[in-house]
Amino acid sequence: MARKIAVITGGSRGLGRNAALRLAEKHCDIIFTWRSQSAEAQAVVQEIEARGGRALALQLDVADSGGFDAFVATVQNQLGQVWQRKQFDYLLNNAGVGLHVPFAQTTEAQFDLVMHTHFRGPFFLTQKLLPLISDGGRILNVSSGLTRFSLADSSAYAAMKGGMEVLTRYQAKELACRNITVNIIAPGAIATDFSGGTVRDNSEVNQLVASQTALGRAGLPDDIGHAIAAIFSDEMGWVTGQRIEVSGGMFL
Question: Could you tell me the CATH superfamily of domain 4-240?
Answer without folding.
Answer: NAD(P)-binding Rossmann-like Domain (3.40.50.720)
